[in-house]
Amino acid sequence: MRQFFEYLRKNYKYIFRAFLFILTIALIVYIFPREGKFRYEFQKSRPWSHENLFAPFDFPVYKSEKQLQAERDSSLQNFSPYFKYDSTVLISESEKFLKYYSDKQVEFITLKESESAGFNNYRKQNFIKNSDDFKEYAGNILSIIYSDGIREINEITETLNSEEDIIILKGNLAENSTLSNVYTQKIAYEYVRNAISEYVESNKAKIRYSEFYENFNLYEFIVPNLFYDESTSENVKNELLNNVSLTKGMIQSGEKIISQGEIIDTHLYRILESLKYESETRLGNGYFSQIILLGQIIFVFACILVLFLFLLNFRVEILKHTLKTVFILMLVLLIVVVSRYSIKYLYIVPFVLVPIIIKTFYDSRLALFIHIITVLLVGFFAPNGFEFIFLNFIAGIIAIFSLTNLYRRGKLFLTAGLVILTYSFVYFGLAITQEGNFSGIEYRNFLYFGFNGSLVLLTFPLIYIFEKTFGFLSDLSLMELSDSNQKLLRSLAEKAPGTFQHSMQVANLAEEAIRKIGGNPLLVRTGALYHDIGKMNNPVYFIENQRTGFNPHDMHEFDESANIIISHVKDGVELAKKHSLPDPLIEFIRTHHGTTKVQYFYRSYIKKFPDQDVDVNLFTYPGPKPYSKEMAVLMMADSVEAASRSLTEINEEKIGNLVESIITDQMNDGQFDHVDINFKDITEIKMLFKDKLMNIYHARIKYPEKK
Fold it and tell me: Which of 194, 402, 569, 675 could form a disulfide with 632 if both were Cys (CB 3.0 to 4.6 A apart)?
C-alpha cells in the first residue's frame, strides 16, 4: 500500500491528466442520444451503392414534412374559431342604462323647471311620454346589438379575416356566423349614434327638446359579450391536425425496397427515411441501447485517444501544463454539449469558433486538428452526418486561412463574412446535388448561416475570458503590451535609455528573423521589448547606458560585477511579476541568456587568478535554456546586437565574423537543444542579422547618437 501511495505521489500529474481525458469521454458519452445509427448512407437522386435491400420488418412509410404541412394547412381551412356568448351582459348593461336614463330624465326636468316658467305641467307630461318612448327605442337598439353580438378585440381576434366563418356558443347550442355579422365596440357605437340621430330627425314634430336625446352617451353601455374561446378553438384545431395521417402505406417484412444501382427517387427516399427512423428507434430501446452505449464509448474513446496522441507527438507542452489540457478538452466538450441540445438548429452553432480560438493561442495545425475531432464527435448524432461534417470542415479551413491577424479588427469581420459565404455556397451545392432541382433547398438555412457567422464576433470577448482564466496571451494583448507608452516601457526609456534603444533594435532583429523561419513575430517582438527591464535597477552597470566614460565595474571585483550583470534577469522577472506581465513574456526574460557565461568577467577572473579554481556558477546565468523558436531567436538577436556595439572597426567581414562566432558558440554550448530549429533556419538567421546590423551601422554613421 505504501508503494502504491508513493507511486501516486510521484505520478499524480500524469494520473490527473489521464483522468481529465477519461472524464471528457464519460461526459460526451453521457450526453450522446441513446439511439442507433442506420447502417446505410444514401442521398436523394443518387444511385443506391449498397447491396439489394429487403425490409427487415413491417414498417409504415412516413410522409415528408412538406406533405404533412400541406395536408395540415388544408385541414385547417375547415377550421372556424369559437366564441362564447355571454347572455348576462345584456341584462346587466340594460339595468345600468335604465338607471342612467332615469337619472338623466329627472336631471333634465329639474333643469327646465328652474330655467323657465314656460315648462308647465302639460309640457312636462308630454316630455315624459316622449322620453319614455325613446327609452324603449334605445333599449331595443341595445337588445338588437347584443343579440347579434359584440366581440372582444385581442391579439388573436385582430388577425382574423372579416369574412371568416366563426361558431358562437350560446349555452349548449352552437350557431354558425361570420365575423362581419358581429359588432366591434366601435361599430356598435356608431350604429347607436346613427340610430338615435335618425330617431330624432324623424320625430322632430313631436319631440320638443331634441338636445336631451342627442346628448345621450350610450358608449359606456356597449361592451363585448362575445369572447374568443381559446380552449375550445385549440382543441378543435388539434383534433383536425391529429386526424391528418403521418403515414401513407406499409412495407411488409421481406419486401424488396431497392436494388443496387437503382436511382433513389422521391418515393424511394421516403421509404428509406422511414426505414431509417424505425430502425434507429428500435435500436434505442431495451437491450439494444446497452450495445449502442458500448459502441458510443468506443467511438468517443477513439476520437479522444487520437487527440491525445496528436498532443503527445506534436504538442507535448500542452500535456505538460494542466490548465492548457483543461482548456483544450473543455472547448471540445462545450461545443459538443451545445450541439447536442441545439440539434434542431445545428447550423446556428458557431463551430468555427473552435479553430479561431485555438489558432489565437497556438497555431493553425492544432486548430484544424481539434476542429476535425469536434466535428466528427458532433457528426455522430447530427442529422445528415456527411453534409454536416463536410460543411463545417470547409468552413473551419476557410476561417483558419482567412484570420491571419486577429489584432486587426477588420480581419474578424472579413472572416465572419467568408464563413457565411462558405456555408451558403457549399450548402447550395449539396442541396441541388441531392434534390436535382432548386425546390428542395431549405432557404431558412441561409438565415441560420447568417446568424452563425455573426456569432463569430464573439471571438473577442471569449478570447479575453480565456486569457484571464487560463493565462494565455493573444495577439490583441501583445499589441497592447508592445505599445511603447506602456508604463513599464516608459520607465525603461527614462531610467535606462540605452537599454531601451538596445531592446528596440533587438525587437526589430528578432521580429524579422522569426518572420523568415516561421513563428509568432508579435510575440518575439513584445518579449524583446521587455527582456532587459531588470537593468533599470542598476542601469549604469551596463555599457549601453554609460555616457561619461566612467565604468562603475572598476570599483568591483570580477565576480561581484558578474553577479550584478547576472542579477538583471532575476530583477527583470520580479519587475514583470510586480506589473502583472503574462507568463509567456516573463519566460523571455528568464531564458534570453540561457545558461551562458558572462564571458568578459569570467575570462578576466581567470587571467587575474590563474592558479585558483574558478566556481563557474558565479559567472553563469541561471537559465533555463530557450525552449521555443521565439526564445532562441531573441537570445541570438540580443547577443549579436549587444556585441556589435563594442566593435571598434565595423565592416561586413567584422559583422559576419561576429554573428557567426556568437551563434555558433551558443549552438555548441547546447543553448538550443530544446528548440525545434534546424541548420537551414540558423543559416538564414545569420544572413539576416549580418544585413540588418550593417544597415543599423550605416544609420548610426548618418545619424550619430547625441552625446
Answer: 675
